[in-house]
Amino acid sequence: MLIPYEALLQLPKETLANLIREYLFGQVEDGSFASLDEQELAQAIVQCQQALKQGKLKLEYSEDDESFAIRSADQIAQQQD
User: Fold this and answer.
1) I want to staple 15 with a disulfide (CB 3.0 to 4.6 A). Which of 7, 11, 41, 81 is the partner?
2) What is the residue-wise DSSP string for 14-43?
3) Between the CA of residue 67 and those of 48, 51, 61, 62, what are the distances in Å?
């Protein structure tokens, strides 16, 4: 189930930031980023917030394992095909 961006605005800012951090650290492990220092992390969080607002990234809730994950809209569209 996709969570609309407007619903994300209702979350405490720290909760949304934690979801984004989890996503970014996953990107580091996948090799998408070489590393993240504090300045790069802060900048990446802002970029992710913008991508969520623009619909390039989506927050998805999995009922199977009761978890949330940020994924690219392209990745979600490919799974639905």
Assistant:
1) 11
2) HHHHHHHHHHHHHHHHHTSSS---HHHHHH
3) 19, 20, 6, 5
Give the model confidence (pLDDT) of 5-52 as tens digits.
Answer: 999 999 999 999 999 999 988 887 666 666 667 888 888 889 999 999
**pLDDT tens digits for 40-68?**
888 888 999 999 999 999 999 989 999 99
Write out the DSSP string of 51-64. Answer: HHHHTSEEEEEETT
Whole-structure pTM value: 0.82
Give, as one character, the DSSP assignment of residue 10: T
For the chain, what is the radius of gyration of the CA atoms? 13
